Amino acid sequence: MTFRLGLTGSIGMGKSTTAAMFADAGCAVWDADAAVHRLYTPGGAAVAPLRAAFPDAIDATGAVSRDRLRQIISADPTALRRIEEIVHPLVQQDRAAFAAAHADAICVFDIPLLFETGAETEMDAVACVSVAPEVQRKRVLARGTMSEDQFGQILAKQMPIAEKRARSDYVIETDTLEHARARVQDVMADIERRLADA
């Protein structure tokens, strides 16, 4: 039987690294960002509906341009909701197909906006990666891909980490790789115990 573990956390908390640890432990891992990337590539399921709603969002290759979407959203505050109404159901279908293809595994669903999109209702349990705010800030800014201001804007859109932690079944501290790996092993042991009792 499938066990669905939602993996969430805020930007710079170490979610991708933790997802890789679950993959190393034998889990099937689905990545929400990778799913969106697939939907946006030429011929992807999101291209035609987004072209119909926002013709300027499609680039010369026939892909959805994230840069153009950002420009559309900054020019029109109502655009984000309309984009989400198109993309979220497609992402949900991709997730359901993945779960069906891995029906006898522990599936980890790496979803940054898990609670924000209501996806926790599809999960058997939720794990939240977490780290101290100053470590998070240092990690994000060290990437050199965004300014302090952009980081603040992303944080403002995400549910506060304290709330995510409170709503999760497991919390994985990612202050060190060793600590994170030990917590992943604890979570796996607990899930295996739950499956044995099912």
From TrEMBL:
Catalytic activity: 3'-dephospho-CoA + ATP = ADP + CoA + H(+)
Matches recorded under InterPro entries: Depp_CoAkinase, P-loop_NTPase
Cellular component GO terms, alphabetical: cytoplasm
Protein's cellular compartments: Cytoplasm
Pfam families to which the protein is assigned, alphabetical: CoaE
Record flagged with keyword Cytoplasm: yes
PANTHER family hit by this protein: BIFUNCTIONAL COENZYME A SYNTHASE-RELATED, DEPHOSPHO-COA KINASE-RELATED
HAMAP family: Dephospho_CoA_kinase
Entry protein name: Dephospho-CoA kinase
Annotated source species: Thalassococcus profundi
